[in-house]
Structures are given as C-alpha cells and as structure tokens.
C-alpha cells in the first residue's frame, strides 16, 4: 500500500511516496552505546568491528558539529532511529524480496535497469541490502561485488586490510557517526588487469520516517583494473527530517581506473552529509561524477589523494538547489606526487530561493614537480533570492606546478530567452534548453540511460520555474 | 645548523608528546624505545597540533582527523596525512635536549 502524502511547499518530488512500515527490527530512537552494541550483535560481527564501532561512537560524541557549511541547527541526533532492518534475509532473486519493497524498486525502475544494462545491482532499503546480484561472467572474472556486511563475513582479511584506512573515524563528526552505526553499502574488489565493462549499480532507498541511513562503501581496484560504479538515492517526503551519512572509501592501485557516479535525489527533508575519498596510486585514474539534485542540505566534497606519480583525478559535480534546499558541494584534489593531474568541473544551478555553494580544495604538496590542476566553477542563478557562493581554497607548496581556476556566475538572461523565443520556443522550453546546455558536460559523462534520467529529473525541477 | 636547548631529558616520557617552539617553529618531542625524537608539531594535513594526539609505540595520531605519522622517520602511515612531517636532529648534552634547526628557515621549496 503506497500513498503520496500532500506536503505543501515541496515541489515536484516524484519519489516522495512511502510504503507501510514492514520492518522486522529497529533500534530505539537516539544513539547510545546500547544501540551500537545491538547493531553489532544483530549482525554477528567479529570483536574488532564491535570495538571499532564503540571507539567511533566516543569520537562522534567528542567531536563538535561543523561550524561551517550548511545549517545543521535543526538536526537532532536524539530523534533519529539508527537501524531499521526491513527483512530477515537478503534476496538473490527479486522473488525473495517482500512484495511491498519489490514494488518500490519496480517503481524506481531498478529490476528493469538490471535486466537491460547492468552488470550487478545492490538495493538497500533503510539499513540493509535487500537484494543483491552480480552477473555470472563478472563473478567468473574474479570481481567481488557484495554488500558490505557480507564482505566482512566472506572476505575478512581483505576487508580488514582496507576498511577505515582511507577515511578513519577521527576524520570528521559524520565519519565517526557512520563508523559507529554503519550498515549496508557496497564492497567491490576488481582483481589485477580485470576490466568491468558494464557498470555496477547500487540503489539506496530510505522508507522509514526520521531514520538514519549509514551505508559504508569500500572499493578496491587492483593494478591495471577498471570499474564503473553508479549509485542512486531517493526517499519519501515526511514532515520530519531524515539523515543520510555515508562513508565511501576507494583505493585505486597502479594503472587502475575507477569511475564513481552518483545521482543523489533524496527527498527535500533529508540531511545528506557524506564523506567520499579515494586514493590514487601511480598512473591511476579516479573519477567522481557527482550529481546533487535532492536533499534539504547536502555537504559532500569527494576527494582524491594522488599519492603515486602520474595519478589523475577528475571530478565533475553538478548541484541543483530549489526552494528550501542548500547544496554545499565541491571537490578536494590532493597532489602528493610528481606529474599528477586533476580537473574539477562544477556546475551549480540555484532557483526558487535555493542556495548552492561550491567548496573546493586544491593542494600541491612540497615535491610534486610537473603537476597540474584545473578548476572550473560555473553558476547559473535563476531568480531574485536564490544564492550561489564559491569558496575555493588553493594551497601550493611547490612552485613547479600549474594551477588554473576559472569561475563564472550568470543569470538566465532576458536576451538569451528572447532569442530562443524568437525561434518559436516557449519561455519554459527556452529555459530548459539553456539549462540542458549548461549541464551537458555532466550528462554526457553518464551512461546513456542515466543521462536520459538526469535530463528528465532536471526538467521536472525546472517546471514552473519561469513565467 | 644551530642547536637550541628545548627541554630537560627527563621531561620527555614514552607515550607522551611535549610541545616546544624552536625559533618560530612549533615542534613535538617524543620518546620511542628510549630515544628522543623531535618532529614538526604542525600536521601536514590540516595544521593541527600533533602533540595533542595519542602516541602508541612509534606512531602518533593526529587529534583532528586521525592521520598517523611514524615518529622516527616522519613518514605518514595513515590517511588523511599523506605528506611527511619534518624530523629535526636531536642531541642530548648534560641532561638537556637540544634540537637542531636552520638559522634561516623561511621555507624555500626549490
């Protein structure tokens, strides 16, 4: 039984329906040692993980809330349920998934996408992955694609070698929170020289109200290997806020290549506070393709630590902020070895009183001769009252490097609209065309099916924005 | 290189960092397996004071973001610290710890 609640002030969010709560277990509201212990016990984890969680909880309690970025004053940690288990056992076929959950994913088009063009799919519903599958030919190549909880059980040594090494719990308050209560997420290992030619996808759905989703993703791309991972996220619209706080750790070894694409379309009542970080070794390439359309507040700055000579980072970020939204997004590129290169392209659109902030860091270490970085931030502001800030930080400790920074801020001008309307377009069509042209560098980097979806989403966001 | 007295030998204990300022550079004094080491106190990642972090064996953990440094070599051992911390030469003379530093340390990165 699904229903679409009427919430005034929230526009055009297509995925705001919610299902009846059929969860089999949930922890009490609020975050205590008891809650963390219950999660660990329920999962039957080894002692080291339980200790890791408890240490992280202490760190979370000690660390202050960030005093920068978005407004977190309404985020009440005591109102959140930290673990909601939707079903008893994970399914390997969609038939194993409870009908209501399956219906939700059908509506989101996941099983259909899997049949058509994906190599593997993981579907997380509240705290647990409810469906997981990988194509047999990829499994035969030695690619491991599992939900993170299963990976801890099935590959304990590989897991422990990398888990928490890229983002330690001390990193920030929300990394500590995730480390204490993490559940679900994806684990990928691509062996040496193996190339996964088709994308692997994970889909994250929050259903419960005032719930926190804390998935943990760990991707290891071995030497000369390649993978493309895509994630999508949606949630119902409730009057109370939910929290999504993920940690993503990626290691790309010598000559490897990883592309991580996100289309974040959380409901406009979700706080999305995520830490994403990759390490790129010698001649490795790490690409973050990061689309932020939904959520009430997003604070997310995917980073790449280029620690090996000739490593390359590419971050393409798009942020769309409508009424009541703040997208505080950006990128961090750390040049820590010679001849490393990076490009950051950020496209922000604010409309209807929304706010976008580009917050970025380019760091050149002391011995990084021949390294180059290029940052390009473009902002489109639609109307009075919408805001866009650009907060770039550049640290250069070696004078043998090249650093370029370009930024533009523009409005959708009367002149452009007039020109397009003189060619027979309506004002709305003309606006859409300008926006589509503006974000084209982003959509052309997505697999075709996602690009179509992305264009559709942006079009939906734009409905009624002019006139 | 100039050597400056920064502390008495007995002031530096295993498992604890002692912060001092040499010239204009804050440094951390540490004892590992009986030997005294002196590293830059400022973390190369985000400029936190390393001496406020935890010391375990030969590794110090930055209090701000959890990066780790190998004390004797200054090398990073855990992200988000990815760049080495400067290790300063140390001499012990008549129960006093002396730390060596360049007279002109403006930081020329060539």
> CATH-wise, what's the superfamily of chain B?
Rieske [2Fe-2S] iron-sulphur domain
The 3D shape of chain B can be described as: globular
How would a textbook summarize the main sheet of chain A? Answer: 12 strands, mixed
Q: How many distinct helices of chain B?
A: 0
- Biggest pleated-sheet summary of chain B: 4 strands, antiparallel
Structural class of chain A: alpha/beta
Fraction of residues of chain B in helices?
A: under 10%
Q: How many domains is the backbone of chain B divided into?
A: 1
Architecture per CATH nomenclature, i.e. the level-2 architecture of chain B = 3-layer Sandwich
What does this structure look like?
The complex is a heterodimer of chains A (467) and B (110). Chain A has helices at residues 33-43, 47-62, 99-107, 110-117, 136-140, 148-154, 156-162, 173-181, 414-422, 427-443, 448-462; strands at residues 2-3, 18-19, 25-26, 84-85, 120-125, 128-134, 144-147, 186-190, 200-205, 212-213, 216-221, 226-234, 242-244, 247-252, 257-264, 270-280, 285-292, 297-300, 303-306, 312-321, 326-335, 341-350, 355-364, 372-381, 387-396, 402-411. Chain A is α/β, with parallel strands linked by helices and 467 residues long. The two termini of chain A are 37 Å apart. Chain A has two domains: 2-300, no CATH class; 421-467, no CATH class. In chain A, the strands form four sheets. In chain A, strands 7, 8, 10, 11, 13, 14, 16, 18, 19, 21, 23 and 25 form a twelve-stranded mixed beta sheet that branches. The longest helix of chain A is centred in the last third of the chain and has 17 residues, at 427-443. The radius of gyration of chain A is 21 Å and the shape is globular. Chain A is built from eleven helices and 26 strands. Mean pLDDT of chain B is 91; it is low at 106-110. Chain B has one domain (2-101): Rieske Iron-sulfur Protein, CATH 2.102.10.10. Chain B has strands at residues 2-8, 18-22, 25-32, 35-40, 54-56, 59-61, 68-70, 76-78, 87-88, 90-93, 96-101. Chain B is an all-beta fold and 110 residues long. The chains are: A alpha/beta (467), B mainly beta (110). At the A-B interface, loops of A face loops of B.
């Amino acid at each position: 039984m699904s229903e679409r609640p009427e919430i005034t002030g929230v526009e055009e969010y297509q995925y705001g329906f919610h299902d009846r709560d059929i969860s089999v277990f949930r922890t009490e509201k609020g975050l205590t040692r008891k809650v963390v212990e219950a999660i660990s016990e329920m999962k039957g984890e080894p002692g080291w993980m339980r200790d890791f969680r408890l240490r992280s909880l202490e760190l979370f309690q000690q660390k202050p809330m960030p005093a920068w970025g978005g407004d977190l004053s309404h985020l009440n940690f005591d109102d959140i349920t930290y673990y909601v288990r939707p079903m008893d056992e994970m399914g390997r076929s969609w038939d194993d998934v409870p009908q209501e959950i399956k219906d939700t994913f059908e509506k989101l088009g996941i099983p259909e996408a899997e049949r058509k063009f994906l190599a593997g799919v993981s579907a997380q519903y509240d705290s647990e992955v409810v469906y997981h599958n990988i194509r047999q030919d990829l499994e035969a190549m030695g690619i491991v694609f599992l939900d993170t909880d299963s990976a801890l059980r099935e590959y304990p040594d590989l897991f422990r070698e990398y888990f928490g090494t890229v983002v330690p719990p001390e990193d920030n308050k929300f990394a500590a929170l995730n480390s204490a209560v993490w559940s679900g997420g994806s684990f990928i290992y691509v062996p040496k020289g193996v190339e996964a030619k088709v994308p692997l996808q994970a889909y994250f759905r929050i259903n419960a109200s005032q719930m926190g989703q804390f998935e943990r993703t760990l991707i290891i791309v071995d030497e000369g290997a390649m993978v493309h991972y895509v994630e999508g996220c949606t949630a119902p619209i409730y009057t109370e806020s939910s929290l999504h706080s993920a940690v993503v750790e990626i290691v790309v070894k010598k000559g490897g290549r990883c592309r991580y694409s996100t289309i974040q379309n959380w409901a406009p009542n979700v706080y999305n506070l995520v830490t994403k970080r990759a390490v790129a070794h010698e001649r490795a390439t790490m690409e973050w393709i990061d689309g932020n359309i939904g959520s009430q507040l997003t604070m997310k700055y995917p980073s790449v630590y280029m620690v090996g000579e000739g490593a390359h980072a590419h971050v393409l970020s798009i942020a769309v902020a409508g009424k009541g939204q703040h997208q505080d997004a950006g990128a961090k590129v750390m040049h820590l070895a010679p001849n490393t290169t990076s490009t950051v392209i950020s496209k922000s659109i604010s409309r209807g009183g929304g706010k976008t902030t580009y917050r970025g860091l380019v760091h050149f270490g002391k011995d990084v001769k021949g390294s180059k970085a290029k940052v390009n931030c473009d902002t489109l502001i639609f109307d009075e009252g919408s805001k866009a800030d650009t907060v770039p930080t550049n640290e250069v400790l070696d004078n043998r490097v090249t650093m370029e920074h370009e930024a533009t801020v523009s409005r959708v001008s009367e002149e452009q609209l007039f020109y397009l309307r003189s060619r027979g377009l309506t004002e709305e069509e003309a606006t859409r065309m300008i926006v589509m042209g503006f974000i084209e560098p982003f959509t052309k980097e997505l697999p075709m099916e996602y690009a179509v979806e992305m264009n559709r989403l942006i079009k939906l966001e734009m409905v009624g924005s002019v006139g | 290189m100039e050597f400056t007295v920064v502390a008495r030998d007995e002031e530096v204990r295993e498992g604890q960092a002692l912060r001092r300022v040499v010239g204009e550079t804050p440094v951390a004094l540490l004892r590992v397996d009986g030997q005294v080491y002196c590293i830059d106190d400022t973390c190369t990642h985000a400029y936190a004071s390393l001496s406020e972090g935890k010391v375990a064996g030969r590794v110090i953990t930055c209090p701000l973001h959890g990066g780790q440094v190998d004390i004797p070599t200054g090398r990073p051992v855990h992200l988000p610290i990815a760049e080495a911390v400067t290790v300063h030469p140390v001499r012990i003379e008549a129960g006093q710890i002396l730390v060596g530093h360049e007279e002109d340390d403006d930081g020329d990165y060539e």
